[in-house]
Design brief:
This protein is α/β, with parallel strands linked by helices and about 220 residues long. About 55% of the residues lie in helices and about 10% in strands. The chain folds into 2 domains: about 90 residues, Glutaredoxin (3-Layer(aba) Sandwich), CATH 3.40.30.10; about 120 residues, Up-down Bundle (Glutathione S-transferase Yfyf (Class Pi), Chain A, domain 2), CATH 1.20.1050.10. It contains 10 helices and 5 strands. Strands 4-3-1-2-5 form a 5-stranded mixed sheet, with helices on one face.
Length: about 220
């Protein structure tokens, strides 16, 4: 199988979700680093008309949107399946993947993660404490709902790892590096233990910000 080419910014939770999926599937892949200030310029804007990451290239296919990418990888690479066969379990996976995109990232990680990590580390900005405080009530709501859906299960879609686990783990691990993490997880210990299990997997160990930064070649 020809290698998958992933264009991303090292540290991006969405890029990490794609790379972790490729590691879980034991698929050959390469990483191309996209400089943050170049996402809305050529050549990247021709890969992704909305100027975001990640983008996947494989055998002439250019694909953006993380859910589409990880589903393609799961279908294209034989072996371990990351999508449940049972339709109800698969529906739960789909639901959690959408919670990840619309509620965990949008309005939570897009604010807290940006203000605490992206802004200071990459752009040299000072965190906007008021912006963070404003989203904390909703962040708690998202964490409580994820904890409820996980329950006592080993993984979000039951007993087997799925694409939902990979996507949520990338977002939560990013947030775990912020001061807000302790407050957000005070009432959700099952999320903390689940994330520890996820972080022990080779797919998460091999896709940290630091390791991707070392592996990525310039765009």
């Amino acid at each position: 199988m020809s290698p998958f080419l992933v264009y991303t910014i090292p540290g991006s939770p969405y890029g990490r979700a794609v790379l972790a999926t490729l590691v879980e599937k034991e698929a050959p892949h390469e990483v191309v680093a996209v400089p943050p200030g170049s996402m809305r310029k050529e050549p990247h804007i021709s890969r992704h008309p909305f100027g975001r990451v990640p983008v996947l290239e494989h055998d002439g296919l250019v694909l953006y949107e993380t859910q589409a990418i990880v589903r393609y990888v799961d279908r294209a690479v034989p072996g371990k399946e990351l999508t449940p066969k049972d339709i109800r379990t698969a529906a739960r996976m789909d639901q959690i993947m959408n919670i990840n995109d619309w509620y965990l990232f949008q309005g939570v990680n897009s604010v807290i993660g940006f203000q605490r990590i992206v802004g200071p580390r990459i752009l040299g900005l000072t965190a906007d404490e008021a912006a963070i405080a404003a989203v904390m009530p909703n962040a708690h709501k998202v964490f409580r709902e994820l904890a409820r859906l996980l329950g006592s299960n080993k993984f979000f879609a039951g007993s087997q790892l799925s694409l939902a686990d990979i996507m949520v783990a990338a977002q939560l691990d990013f947030l775990s590096d912020t001061p807000e993490w302790a407050s957000l997880t005070a009432e959700t210990p099952n999320l903390v233990s689940w994330l520890a299990r996820m972080n022990a997997r080779p797919s998460l160990k091999e896709t940290t910000w630091e390791k991707v930064n070392l592996l990525a070649r310039a765009a």
